[in-house]
Amino acid sequence: MPTFNLDPFYLIVDNADWLARLLPLGVRLVQLRVKDSPESEVREEILRARDLCRTAGAQLIVNDYWKLAIDAGCDFVHLGQEDLDGADLDALRRHEVRIGVSTHDEAELDRALSISPDYVALGPVWPTLLKEMKFAPQGLEKLGAWKERIGDIPLVAIGGLTPARACLALAAGADSACVVTDVLRARDPESRAVEWVATTAPWRDSPELTRAFSPEFAGAKVFPSPNHGPRARAVSALVLHYTGIPTAEGALELLCSPIAEVSAHYFVEEDGRILQLVPESRRAWHAGASYWAGETDMNSASIGVEIVHPGHIDPHDFPPAQIEAVIALSRDICARHKIAPERVLAHSDIAPRRKMDPGEFFPWARLAAAGVGRYVEPLPPDDGPALEGDSAGEAVARLQRQLAAFGYKINETGVYDEDTASAVAAFQRHWRPARVDGRADASTIDVLTRLLT
């Protein structure tokens, strides 16, 4: 039997009417799951679904009714564990009908593998609304572990999926993401189906962007994001971010979604686990519109590390295990790419008008003590005279020259404008975090002067 690649978007429908609506939108892999209907009606649904799929060039998979599938000349069936008891597997193979099997635990996987299935489905990966499940949600780690075990056999993730979660499932090792309610119960099923087709497009059309690769940091686990492109120049900087999203899963969804068009090379979880999303040789999309020391394409010139933290919506300390992981990762990156200490930067340094991460509560001094980046102990904030919004003249021009020499994008105008205040605030977040107010007091100017020497 010729090899078969599952489409990354696998839709389950309960009648053929859905296929007339959704196949024209680009759906290419569907399962017909008809329940609680007379066999004569099921036969008619299968025949109609078969014809619609053939016309659209889509793959039809018939759930459960293997005899009717053979009679209708269908070439794929899906069997649950209970269906395996009564199915004539030899008859299915004689008629060259492929077989997919549902699994929920190790025993069911062993049983599925014993019949040499054409795919294995694992679920529920997340909680599902479709039906009561006697199995707990399996999670992304189980997907990865099962894919390692089954090798070239396609793996289907099912249960609680959305377009964003589909990206996580596919990055974790699934070959296809299966859905029922997220499309069929959507307010606008057609629009939701289009979103699914678009979200899964890189896994369908650009395998070079989504295939696994070898991690470049020994402590990282590969979790491929499709959001990257070719570098335009060599790596010369390391940029640290916080995710700024309440949950790690939500942040990871964003970094792996082709619709969002953002990514980073590394993702450091609160417990210190590290995922590598993009090869270091590729240009991740983490910096956005940014600048440092004459460089206008910081995405090309840097490695980006996203650190799981809700950010300024909840500005608490970063967990010690996470910071130790960031230090180990950063030291390794800087050593391999020969990144100078003064080129270990905050996202807020390279985009001071737009960004505040990783924030004044990030332990830059701890990193510098471990050999990552530069830091000098600042004097306490000064409540005396300072350069600020109404300042102008040579003192402001000198400050602007110093900030520009340090790396910030700023023009020497001699006027303490908004760009100057933003650059000063970004500088304070990184090197004088005790007070971030955008006022260049004596303490701020002293730290800047010492860092420039």
Structure overview:
There is one protein chain. The chain is an alpha/beta fold and 453 residues long. It is 39% helix and 15% strand. It contains 20 helices and 16 strands. It has helices spanning 17-22, 39-56, 66-71, 81-86, 89-94, 106-114, 139-150, 163-172, 181-184, 189-199, 201-205, 207-210, 248-256, 298-301, 320-337, 347-350, 364-369, 394-406, 418-431, 442-452; strands at 9-13, 29-32, 59-63, 76-79, 98-103, 119-122, 155-158, 176-179, 220-222, 228-230, 237-242, 266-268, 274-276, 282-284, 302-307, 344-346. The strands form three sheets. The chain has an eight-stranded parallel β-barrel, surrounded by four helices. Strands 9-13-12-15-11-16 form a six-stranded mixed beta sheet. A two-stranded antiparallel sheet has the order 10-14. A hairpin with a 5-residue loop joins strand 12 and strand 13. Helix 8 packs across helix 13 (248-256) and helix 18 (394-406) packs across helix 20 (442-452). The longest helix has 18 residues, at 39-56. The N and C termini lie far apart (71 Å). The mean pLDDT is 96.
